[in-house]
Amino acid sequence: MMEEADKGVLDLRGLKCPLPALLARKALAKAPPGTVLTVLADDPLAAVDIPHMCHTHGHSLDGSVQAEGYRIFTVRRGPAAGLPADSPPATGAG
Questions:
Q1: pTM exceeding the 0.70 threshold for the entire prediction
Q2: Residue 68 lies in a domain
Q3: Is residue 87 part of a domain?
Q4: 54 catalytically annotated
């Protein structure tokens, strides 16, 4: 496994569910909105987990392509990483 999130590529080949989705989410949380991250994953469940993570946390899955033995995901960080797409922002009032 070779991680290079600072260069826009996150190589998560060799990791099993749920690590590819969790590490992609962590990398996106550190990035500014609109950042494009290319994620490489060879775990078959990443084809379900990464799109689900994108939908749940407000990111955009711009592409998913099967390569030889792994999948390449192109993910764009959403405006409010960490919040589910249908959740209102926290107001701090309580």
A1: yes
A2: yes
A3: no
A4: no
Per-residue pLDDT tens digits for 30-83 = 999 999 999 999 999 999 999 999 999 999 999 999 999 999 999 999 997 554
**Helices 46-57/19-30 angle, 10° precision:** 30
Structural domain includes residue 38: yes
Residue 61 placed within a domain: yes
- Locate all alpha helices (DSSP H) within the chain, ordered by sequence: 19-30, 46-57
Out of 9, 17, 72, 80, the active site residue is: 17
* Strand residue runs (E) in the chain: 2-4, 9-11, 36-41, 60-66, 71-76
- What gap in Å lies between CA 56 and CA 19, rounded to an integer? 16
CATH at residue 47? 3.30.110.40
Alpha-carbon distance 1 to 79, whole Å? 28
